[in-house]
Amino acid sequence: MDVRQTVIDLCKAARAATRPLATASTDAKNRCLKDAATRLRAQCAQVSEANRHDVERGRAGGLSAALLDRLTLTEARVDAMAKGLEEVADLPDPVGETMARWRRPNGLEIGQVRIPLGVVGIIYESRPNVTADAAALCLKAGNAVILKGGSEAIRSNAAIAKILSDAAAGAGLPAAAIQLIPTTDREAVQVLLKQSQYVDVIVPRGGESLIRAITEASSIPVIQHYAGVCHTYVDEQADLRMAEEICFNAKVQRPGVCNAMENMLVHAAVAPAFLPSMLKRFGDAQVELRGCARTRALVSGVLPASEDDWRTEYLDLILAVKVVDSLDEAIQFINTHGTGHSDAIVTKHYDHARRFQNEVDSAAVYVNASTRFTDGYEFGFGAEVGISTNRLHARGPMGLRELTTYKYVISGNGQIRE
Amino acid sequence: MDVRQTVIDLCKAARAATRPLATASTDAKNRCLKDAATRLRAQCAQVSEANRHDVERGRAGGLSAALLDRLTLTEARVDAMAKGLEEVADLPDPVGETMARWRRPNGLEIGQVRIPLGVVGIIYESRPNVTADAAALCLKAGNAVILKGGSEAIRSNAAIAKILSDAAAGAGLPAAAIQLIPTTDREAVQVLLKQSQYVDVIVPRGGESLIRAITEASSIPVIQHYAGVCHTYVDEQADLRMAEEICFNAKVQRPGVCNAMENMLVHAAVAPAFLPSMLKRFGDAQVELRGCARTRALVSGVLPASEDDWRTEYLDLILAVKVVDSLDEAIQFINTHGTGHSDAIVTKHYDHARRFQNEVDSAAVYVNASTRFTDGYEFGFGAEVGISTNRLHARGPMGLRELTTYKYVISGNGQIRE
Questions:
Q1: A114-A116-A117-A121 Cα dihedral, nearest 10 degrees
Q2: B59 and B159 share one domain
């Protein structure tokens, strides 16, 4: 296979598919998604067979048990994928939405209307369900998608992408609306990242090193999903019971995700009342605790936290704890050590809540709630492509709307410029 | 001067300025802009003196008369700059605007709130008024700006930037809100384009080669303002008098700008009635005409158009003319040869108007109006940084809102995730 030519041909086909996709009816897109769900369930055996090859090769290649588990497609997981497709079909179509419309003094009517971005490249690792999830969101938003999955899942991904592409053709949409790069050759990604004349945006899903390497190599805009070093700050005027529930939830409910808490800040005035029972509860839940000197003076069994700890996304049952003297110190600490993802204050004080929301420069800033809510489903967007840590174009949960751009449609009756 | 260190220090200072700027009151920002206008008028002599040095050096260096004119700051032009600052002060502040707010079933209230982008780098050529215009818009949107003007205008730019920076300090804002890179060394831009940890976006203003070189070298997102190869399509059901006025305006009123018409498409059914008088009028206005074979068969004195002509932004009194057989051909031609900037149809036919607006994939799509209206002022945005040809983040005229991003502020009363 000529990898370079294969990728370029695929990009050209995707670009050509954008025109019919941009004007495709919502009905056609939904038919495609529902039909893909039906086909996925009907062809579960074939998908499982492809997946078995991937899993066997992965096992032979020494993949860890955790990675093997992520790779494995059970019947229940295939059904969940199909359900995901149906859910995207049920979401409102963002394309054609008028974002604003106004009339100018000269009578020109200007409308700002949502349209698809065009061609979206998704580069992801391991879990094959991303193939279906990402493709469904891109298609519903009227985009052509080019998928590049992890090499360990290539057969599974190919089987799933084939079903989706067939469903597109069955619904009268271009089959090239959904394409998977059919090679594990690393050159493929490098070629893809240079096709800025055909591809509008790259969304990498994976670890930080993957995202950095892609951003460095890409001549196409990249929407990053970097780490979440999320904080909860327990204010001097917090309801300490509420604070305990929120902090416990933010750390323990699902520690391996980007919106889980990594640093807990506690005001000095409430630290003696709050920390002993809170940290005991964390300890009972097997959370390893690392703290500042003042934390360690209050509670025994806490390891010393290094400067590195304040900047680490553990994604694990580890928590760094710091006592602070003021709201200002907490805000300053979060803006310095955080990653601008999700941060929370627990407080009963109106002005502290207001200042925290205004001054913490993060994509999602919470008062009296767990940072774990930063999520497309929880925000009410339906599914999500990921949580953007970019400042441009899309910030926070990326749903269907974030996969669109807009144009201005201007209606006149002969206006010319003086 | 250590160019590298100078640029890095400037970027760090800009980043540090973002915190106070993000929470600066509208009043403080407006005071700064109005005070800058007052200072600019009061210090007109000093600015003119700095400008005279630039102009003399430009003349000695062999700058063309047109470029020398663009470089020269008369008293009237300094006053116009000051007026521009006052106009930006009068525009609504985009920061803090709630774009959307909703309540989730669990009681969480989610607001999407506009905030500044952060640090904006503007790289531009020749005209010194851009220094004031761009800085004013960035400041009003709460951003710190780093300006890199053309080397031929460095003294003028430095004088203007100093006045703006002094006015910022006078209004209690960071002086580093507005900084100019104080060197003509080409290394400065290369260093700037790598400071992605301090700078959020680069906006280049200038010719296509400048923009391409910057995009290639930048590790920071770039908002491009590429060429406008704009079309007007005269439909078979057009009001031909209206069509003539719109086409004439789009080509002749100001040919040197990106929203001027470069290609005129005419339906074959009306070409015999429309083209002779239209092209005579263009000829009388010194417009050089290049056409397809059918155009040349209808009107004498039209040069043959090459394939290159259909893709050229003349920015001059030159027009390419093509006869087409259908709306479909017109749409296809525009989507193939245009640059996605501004395109118009003149028609009385409802469905042709609707299809043209839906199917032409350009930032601004007009029915029965001149493409010359693609402009921040004409759209009602007030001033503009430029006309983006990007699909991500900002498309079309970039005003204050396009210089912002958003965050989600989430207010709860103890919500945790199950």
A1: 150
A2: yes
Per-residue pLDDT tens digits for A178-202: 999 999 999 999 999 999 999 999 9
Q: Is a pLDDT exceeding 80 seen at residue A142? A: yes
CATH number at residue B311: 3.40.309.10
Tens of pLDDT along A339-356?
A: 999 999 999 999 999 999
For B159-205, what is each residue's pLDDT tens digit?
A: 999 999 999 999 999 999 999 999 999 999 999 999 999 999 999 99
In a domain, A322, yes or no: yes
Task: Check whether residue B216 and residue B320 sit in a common domain.
Answer: no
For chain B, say whether A398 makes contact (Cβ under 8 Å). Answer: no
Q: Residue A126 above 80 pLDDT?
A: no
Domain that holds residue A75: 3-226+398-410
> Looking at the complex, does the CB of residue B97 fall below 8 Å from at least one CB of chain A?
no
- Are A334 and A255 within one domain? yes
- Best of A410, A411, A418 to disrupt the B interface by mutation (most B CBs within 10 Å)? A410
Inter-CA distances, B28 with A37, B39, B83, B314, B371, Å: 56, 16, 18, 43, 37
Q: What Rg, from alpha-carbon coordinates, does chain A have?
A: 24
Residues B219, B265 share a domain: no
Are B147 and B248 in a shared domain? no
**Which pLDDT score is estimated for A187?**
95
Overall number of domains in chain B: 2
Q: Are strands B109-116 and B404-415 parallel, antiparallel or unpaired?
A: antiparallel
Asked if residue A393 is part of any domain, the answer here is no
Q: What is the pTM of this model?
A: 0.94
List of chain A residues whose C-beta atoms are within 8 Å of the C-beta of residue B380: 102, 104, 110
- Rounded CA-CA distance B406/B396 in Å is 19
For residue A125, the model assigns a pLDDT of 86
Asked if residue B186 and residue B79 are part of one domain, the reply reads yes
> In 3D, which of B272, B381, B376, B292 has the Cα closest to residue B333?
B292
- What gap in Å lies between CA A53 and CA B251, rounded to an integer? 63
Rounded to a whole number of angstroms, the distance from the CA of B418 to the nearest CA of chain A is 8
Whether A185 and A296 map to the same domain: the answer is no
Judged by a CB distance cut-off of 8 A, whether residue A160 touches chain B is no
Interchain pair B407, A364: CB under 8 A:
yes
B148, B383, B203, B56 alpha-carbon torsion, rounded to 10° = -30
CB contact under 8 Å between B249 and A379, yes or no, is no
Cα dist from B395 to A313, A403, B390, whole Å: 35, 14, 6
Q: How far apart are CA B31 and CA B28, in angstroms?
A: 5
Give the pLDDT confidence score for residue A226 in this predicted structure: 87
